[in-house]
TrEMBL record:
Location in or out of the cell: Cytoplasm
Transmembrane segments: none
Gene (name only): nfi
UniProt organism field: Natronoglomus mannanivorans
EC numbers, comma separated: 3.1.21.7
Designated name of the protein: Endonuclease V
Length: 274
DNA sequence: GCGACAG
DNA sequence: ATCTTGTCGC
């Protein structure tokens, strides 16, 4: 059954300790395993692939943020700023973009490693509210279970909306790779396991380093992505989904398009706004 | 005091 | 994240 948890939405007015407590609560209700009828990675990118249920191809949404920063110290009476965050969402189905939306909200707190969702969560939830289609899966820029309290931004957003979600990060927040990550061939996945800094038994599988792209014969190397379950998706499926959606580029297509749309929409806001 | 960590 | 030039490789 679908049970959204708006009561667990990020609240920037909470104290740091309260935010961390909320994250433990979120990790507690999060499901780091596949849904019963699990999603089939191959059906996300291949329009012709038959789904086991024979229904419509699944809808995947990529979510990414850009920022409108003032960097102007004048007029900031009470220490606050006019900086804003813009969250962009690109929904795709059978390899085609079917909808794009975005939302802008004021930035209330600074970036603090481990508390990213409290800074960027509001615009994301607002943007998701604008969506007319209902994605079967969401890919967020940032961590899911690879997080000190197992509640990265992908997990937080996934639990609040109770939708399947995956975290796609470009650098490793915590956890330890089971093998070296130097110059891996495309398609390689290396387990990332919990260390003593993570709220999970040491050795717990948190996610995978996923090499979506690599140069053939050169002196230039591509770094892997760090993929982890957000909610209602297991680590293996999360890695497979990212590989299936990353044809030709390092980032999976929905996230790559959300990234460029976030930049594009920022321009529209700047000239149309005050 | 040291550690050092998504975007 | 954001601010930017140049350099590399396809």
């Amino acid at each position: 059954m679908m049970t959204p948890r708006p009561d667990l939405a990020p609240d920037a007015t909470l104290s740091r300790g309260e935010m961390e407590t909320l994250q433990r609560e979120i990790a507690d209700v999060a499901v780091f395993a596949d849904d019963d009828p699990p999603l089939e990675p191959e059906t996300l990118s291949n329009p012709l692939a038959a789904t086991s249920t024979g229904g419509e191809p699944p809808i995947v949404a990529g979510v990414d943020q850009s920022f409108l920063l003032d960097s102007d110290d004048s007029g900031d009476e009470d220490g606050g700023t006019d900086d804003r965050a813009l969250s962009a969402v690109v929904a795709m189905q059978a390899g085609e973009v079917i909808e794009r939306v975005f939302a802008v909200t004021p930035l209330e707190i600074p970036y603090i490693p481990g508390l990213l969702s409290f800074r960027e969560g509001r615009p994301i939830l607002d943007a998701l509210e604008e969506l007319s289609v209902e994605p079967d899966l969401y890919l967020f820029d940032g961590s899911g279970r690879i997080h000190f309290r197992q509640a990265g931004i992908a997990t937080h957003m996934g639990v609040v909306r109770d939708v399947p979600s995956i975290g796609v990060a470009k650098s490793l927040l915590c956890g330890s790779p089971r093998e070296d990550l130097e110059n891996l061939p495309a398609g390689t996945t290396i387990p990332i396991e919990a260390t003593d800094r993570v709220d999970a038994p040491e050795g717990t599988l948190l996610g995978y380093a996923v090499q979506t792209k690599q140069y053939e014969s050169s002196s230039r190397y591509v770094n892997p992505l760090y993929v982890s379950p957000g909610h209602r998706v297991g680590p293996e499926t999360a890695a497979e989904v990212v590989l299936a959606l990353s044809e030709g580029y390092k980032l999976p297509e929905p996230v790559r398009l959300a990234d460029s749309y976030a930049t594009e929409a920022k321009g529209e806001v700047v000239d149309g706004g005050e």
